C-alpha cells in the first residue's frame, strides 16, 4: 500500500496543548518541517465528536489542514485503564475538566479504581497527517504499563506521573523526556508515520 509523502515546508501541529506541541515538535526535529501550532495560528479547536482516537485525530488534523491551507499533524491520545473498561480513553482530557487539572483527573482514576487489584493500563495514540484536499494518513501506537499512586515526577504532562511503563520502576513523570520519546505511545505511532510518510 502506498502512502502520501510529506515533502517538507510548513507543518501545522493541530493542538492547543503546549506539552503535546512540545513533544511532537521534538519528534519532528530531524525532518524538513517548519513547525507551527494551531494555537499559534489562532485556529479554533474543533469539537471532538469522534468515538475513537483515530476519528478524533483525523477530525483535528483536517480542521487545521483546511484552516491553515497546509499539511497538518494531529494526535489524539489518552489513558485506557483495564479495570475501568478502558476509561478515561478518548475522554482523558475531559476528565481533567475545563481547567485541564490533571491532578484532579489522577485522583478521580484512583477513586474509581477503589480496591481493584488490576492496575494495568496503556497509553494509546493516533497520529494523523492531513492535507488541505482531505487526504489523511493515520497510525496508532500504544505503550503498556501499570498505574501507581500517589503521582510521581514532574516531567511530561497529563497522566504521566501515575504511569509506570512495563519493565521500568519509574513513571513517565520521572523519566527524562528523551527516554520517554524513545518508547512512548506517541513515539510508537510516530515511528510508523515516519516510515510511511517521511522516509
Give a short summary of the structure:
The chain has 199 residues and is of the alpha/beta class. Helix content is 30%, strand content 24%. It has one domain (9-197): Maf protein.
Explain how this protein is built:
30% of the residues lie in helices and 24% in strands. By secondary structure, the chain is α/β, with parallel strands linked by helices. It has one domain (9-197): Maf protein (Alpha-Beta Complex). Strands 2-1-3-4-5-6 form a six-stranded mixed β-sheet. Helix 4 (177-183) packs across helix 5 (185-197). The longest helix is centred in the first third of the chain and has 16 residues, at 53-68. The radius of gyration is 16 Å and the shape is globular. It starts with 8 loop residues before the first strand and ends with a helix. The model has no long low-confidence stretch (mean pLDDT 94).
Task: Give the topology.
Layout: E1 9-13, H1 18-28, E2 33-37, H2 53-68, E3 71-81, H3 102-113, E4 120-130, E5 136-147, E6 163-165, H4 177-183, H5 185-197
Parallel strand pairs: 1-2, 1-3
Antiparallel strand pairs: 3-4, 4-5, 5-6
Helix pairs in contact: 4-5
Keywords:
199 residues; Maf protein; 6-stranded mixed beta sheet
Tally of helical segments: 5
| Order of neighbouring strands in the sheet with most strands | 2-1-3-4-5-6
Look at the structure and give the CATH class: Alpha Beta
Number of DSSP-assigned strands = 6
Structural class: alpha/beta
The helicity comes to: 25-40%
Main sheet? 6 strands, mixed
Oligomeric state as shown: single chain
**Which sequence of SSEs, written as H and E, runs from N to C?**
EHEHEHEEEHH
Strand residue percentage: 15-25%
- CATH topology grouping: Maf protein
Number of domains: 1
Overall pLDDT level: 94
Q: Regions with pLDDT < 50 over 5+ consecutive residues?
A: none
Principal-axis shape equals: globular
What's the N-to-C terminus distance?
15 Å
- Radius of gyration from the CA trace? 16 Å
Amino acid at each position: 500500500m502506498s502512502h502520501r509523502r510529506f515533502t517538507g515546508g510548513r507543518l501545522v501541529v493541530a493542538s492547543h496543548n503546549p506539552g503535546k506541541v512540545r513533544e511532537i515538535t521534538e519528534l519532528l526535529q530531524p525532518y524538513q518541517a517548519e513547525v507551527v501550532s494551531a494555537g499559534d495560528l489562532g485556529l479554533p479547536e474543533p469539537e471532538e465528536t469522534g468515538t475513537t482516537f483515530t476519528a478524533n485525530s483525523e477530525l483535528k488534523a483536517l480542521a487545521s489542514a483546511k484552516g491553515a491551507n497546509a499539511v497538518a499533524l494531529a494526535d489524539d491520545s489518552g489513558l485506557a485503564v483495564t479495570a475501568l473498561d478502558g476509561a478515561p480513553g478518548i475522554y482523558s482530557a475531559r476528565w481533567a475538566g475545563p481547567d485541564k487539572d490533571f491532578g484532579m483527573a489522577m485522583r478521580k482514576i484512583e477513586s474509581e479504581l477503589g480496591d481493584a487489584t488490576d492496575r494495568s493500563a496503556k497509553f494509546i495514540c493516533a497520529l494523523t497527517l492531513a492535507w488541505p484536499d482531505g487526504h489523511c494518513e493515520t497510525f496508532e501506537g500504544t505503550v503498556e504499563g501499570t498505574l501507581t499512586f500517589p503521582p510521581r515526577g514532574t516531567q511530561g504532562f497529563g497522566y504521566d506521573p501515575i504511569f509506570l511503563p512495563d519493565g521500568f520502576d519509574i513513571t513517565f513523570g520521572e523519566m527524562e523526556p528523551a527516554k520517554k520519546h524513545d518508547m512512548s505511545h506517541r513515539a510508537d505511532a510516530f515511528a510508523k508515520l515516519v516510515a510511511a510518510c517521511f522516509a
